[in-house]
Amino acid sequence: MKHSTPIPQQAEDFPFEFSEAAFARIRQILRERRNFDIGSYKDKYMKRRIAIRVRATHAVSATVYSELLAGSERELDALLKGLTIHVSHFFRNRSTFGRIRDEVLPALFARLHREGRAEATFWSVGCSSGEEPYSLAILLKDSFPEELNRLKISVVATDINEGILDAARRGGYPPDRLHETPPEVVTRHFTANGGKFHLAPDIRSMVAFRRGDLFDYASYLASDLILCRNVLIYFEREEQERILMGLAASLPAGGILVLGKAETLVGESRRRFVTVCPVERIYQKNRLSLY
């Protein structure tokens, strides 16, 4: 078996030494101390996020930073936060939400009605600070009041970062998080105070936030609609396929999966779905699928 010497990251990528040994040490610390394994994520993405903390702590190299990390619970929490948060905003890609409102949900509600269903679950995966599930809740409140009265609809939002989930529950956002939100929606559902826009309690109460790990497949929620947007892009292809297969298993025949615009089905998961809208990356669980 050949053994190669680790090559430090090139200077044009990072203005400091970033050896594979240092990267492996940081991965080990995160796994042992916070039960968070970065091995399934794309190395380039993880290194970029770690590099932010290396610079913030004025460490001269990733090796020096790994030593700092080993001795500091505070820095370990700061790194975990930096690795798991991705910034979003309300009604990101408005055309996607328009398609969900005008086509996806009417067809979904019609199917639930035919099947005599009284409950439905909508799952936002990797919800970060809550903009996506709250956008869905606003859409339901404004466009489907009769269905909200007829059905018990659970909007569940999961993320691996407990700190960001606490922020999501509070529902206060800086103005830039609402730049795609129609002004009348802002007026109806938000109150400006202290430099932030605070979401109305009736919308906040519609969403249940909970910690969720995409690598814990047994914890996946049985759902009728799954939003998993701009999450898969951070993972290697093999993990993308595993996650997609787990999401497929969580949906009934006819259930809907929405991915981000830079994402698509891969591998065996392509046999589990039919495409509803290729532009908006909306897919329906194949009614012929056994899983």
UniProtKB/TrEMBL annotation:
<dbReference type="Pfam" id="PF03705">
    <property type="entry name" value="CheR_N"/>
</dbReference>
<dbReference type="Pfam" id="PF01739">
    <property type="entry name" value="CheR"/>
</dbReference>
<feature type="domain" description="CheR-type methyltransferase">
    <location>
        <begin position="11"/>
        <end position="286"/>
    </location>
</feature>
<dbReference type="InterPro" id="IPR022641">
    <property type="entry name" value="CheR_N"/>
</dbReference>
<dbReference type="InterPro" id="IPR050903">
    <property type="entry name" value="Bact_Chemotaxis_MeTrfase"/>
</dbReference>
<dbReference type="GO" id="GO:0008983">
    <property type="term" value="F:protein-glutamate O-methyltransferase activity"/>
</dbReference>
<dbReference type="GO" id="GO:0032259">
    <property type="term" value="P:methylation"/>
</dbReference>
<keyword id="KW-0949">S-adenosyl-L-methionine</keyword>
<protein>
    <recommendedName>
        <fullName>protein-glutamate O-methyltransferase</fullName>
        <ecNumber>2.1.1.80</ecNumber>
    </recommendedName>
</protein>
<keyword id="KW-0489">Methyltransferase</keyword>
<dbReference type="InterPro" id="IPR000780">
    <property type="entry name" value="CheR_MeTrfase"/>
</dbReference>
<keyword id="KW-0808">Transferase</keyword>
<dbReference type="InterPro" id="IPR022642">
    <property type="entry name" value="CheR_C"/>
</dbReference>
<dbReference type="InterPro" id="IPR036804">
    <property type="entry name" value="CheR_N_sf"/>
</dbReference>
<dbReference type="InterPro" id="IPR029063">
    <property type="entry name" value="SAM-dependent_MTases_sf"/>
</dbReference>
